[in-house]
Structures are given as structure tokens and as C-alpha cells.
Amino acid sequence: MRITIYIGLAVGLAAAAFGDERLNGTVTDENGAAISGAMILLHWDSAGSTVGLKSNVGIEKDLVLTTDQKGSFVAELPSGFYDLFVSASAFSPSCRKIRLNDSATSELRFELKVDPTVTKELGFRIDPKP
Known about the structure:
The protein is an alpha+beta fold. It has a single domain, classed as Carboxypeptidase-like, regulatory domain (Immunoglobulin-like, Sandwich), CATH 2.60.40.1120. The protein is 22% helix and 36% strand. A hairpin with a 6-residue loop joins strand 5 and strand 6.
């Protein structure tokens, strides 16, 4: 029991020291339906740190996440500028630059549009919004 508490405290203190922030996001289609299995690529933009911006800590390697059944994803990341790329089969990809700062939780929502080229090749019919 004590070991578990000590490990929990050590992990919590380490996260606080590095200023990790929680990034929550959802990926939906144009009608608001969750897209499960969407890929999210997080790439740290190190440009700010090269000019002395100390809050641009970032990550060394790109991080790849997949959305759950509800179209949600979560990441714990150090402060910094990040490029996010979101893609899913039969949808046009989306990308966005974000800045995580001040040990806060950031919420992102990506709405992917059906890719007419893919749906035409697969023989799907695209109905307009109801």
C-alpha cells in the first residue's frame, strides 16, 4: 500500500515538474457522429525553443494516437507548440497548430468531411445533410 502511494506521489510530482498538460479531443463527421479508429499524429514544433522560448519543451518523437469508440483521444504532453494531423478512412484529413501552456487541460474538436473522391471510387452515395 505504501509503495503504491509513493509511486503515485512520484508520478504526480514528476508530471508537475515537467508541466505536462492534458490534451482531450474528439473527432466527428459533419453530422456530429463519432469517428472511431481515426489517427491523430502529434508533432512538436521546436522553432520556438531555438529562439529561447523556455515554455516550448515538447517531445522528441512524434506521437500517434487512435480515437476510441466515442471518437475521443487523450494525451499528456509537456508545454509547447504542436502540429496535429487527423485522418480517417473515407474522410479528408485535417491539421491544426496548437500551443499547450500553463499546465492546463486543452479541448479540441475535429470535424472531418467525407472525401468525395474516395466515396466515388468506393461507390458510396453522399447524401446532403438532413
